[in-house]
Amino acid sequence: MVSERAKLHTALTFLQFCHAGNHIFLRIALNTGVSKLVFPVYRNITAFILLAPLAYFTEKKDRPPITSYCLLQFFLLGLVGITMKEGFYLVGLDNTSPTFASAMQNSVPALTFLMAVILRYESLRLNRINGIAKVLGVVASVGGFQWEKLELGWHISLWSLFELFGTIAAFLEKDPKAWQLNSIDEAYSILYSGVVISGVAAAIQIWTISKGGPVLASIYLPLQTLLVALIASIAFGEEFFLGGIVGAILIITGLYLVVWGRSQETKSDEPENRMEEKIDNSYLIQPLISVHNS
């Protein structure tokens, strides 16, 4: 029988394969001239058609009541996590390459860890070796990301970002022809992004985060960069850069320092938790009224 931990790591690995394919499909779609606003709309409509019936029939008894606070969270998550994320990504991918776009995501694990520490979701003890390993891992990860950025170059122009915000604010593509699918490649890219990424991969990601936490889920991103680099070198003839290789090594080293630090912290906390449990149980077994022999 497969253990829960093995299922978790298998799912995280499969997730990176899905996203690696998405980088390639999106690059092909952008080469055909697809609109950066129309594509996310079609992608999310496809995902909604897929997920809505499944969510209704499989989880209608388990879903929590929809309150105004939940609706606000859904709106912010949709605005930031879907609309702005996909918009920024498409603008960046249109001005760079699939390898560079995936390499930029390698800063996510370090940022996730820092946010988790600030929000007290992740502990950090600098007086222990595991705490020092976490800090060194974050520094190495960020350093590797900067090395990759300097080697490959920063191609996202400020005007492209202004154009993106203008597109989001307008919330409507002015050119009606942009809503037409001009090639089979656009249709395949929309189906892949909608079904695999916004549908299947999103469900897997939610499950992996609930089981392993956001930090563990983010450490697999360097695998995505490696897969994209291999596929892009075959499909688009992209070259490998020395800075990219060195940066990837630093990132992977940093990420696994963080993982090692977390595992050591978990091991060191287990005796403390058992001791606290014994102390609590000793209080529970004591009688409420003490009897003294006269």
Characterize the structure shown.
The chain is mostly helical and 294 residues long. It has one domain. It contains 10 helices and no strands. The chain has helices at 4-31, 38-59, 68-95, 98-104, 108-118, 129-152, 158-170, 184-218, 221-235, 242-285. Helix 1 crosses helix 4 (98-104). The longest helix has 44 residues, at 242-285. The chain is globular and about 60 Å long.
List keywords for this structure.
single chain; 294 residues; mainly alpha; globular
Helical element count? Answer: 10
Describe the largest sheet: none
Secondary-structure element order, N to C: HHHHHHHHHH
Topology, number of strands = 0
Identify low-pLDDT runs.
150-170
Domain EamA: 17-137, 168-259
Keywords: Membrane, Transmembrane, Transmembrane helix
Organism: Vicia faba
GO molecular function, one term: transmembrane transporter activity
Task: Summarize the structure in short.
This protein is mainly α and 294 residues long.
Q: How do the strands and helices of this protein lay out in sequence?
A:
Layout: H1 4-31, H2 38-59, H3 68-95, H4 98-104, H5 108-118, H6 129-152, H7 158-170, H8 184-218, H9 221-235, H10 242-285
Helix pairs in contact: 1-4, 1-8, 1-9, 2-8, 3-7, 4-9, 5-6, 5-8, 6-10
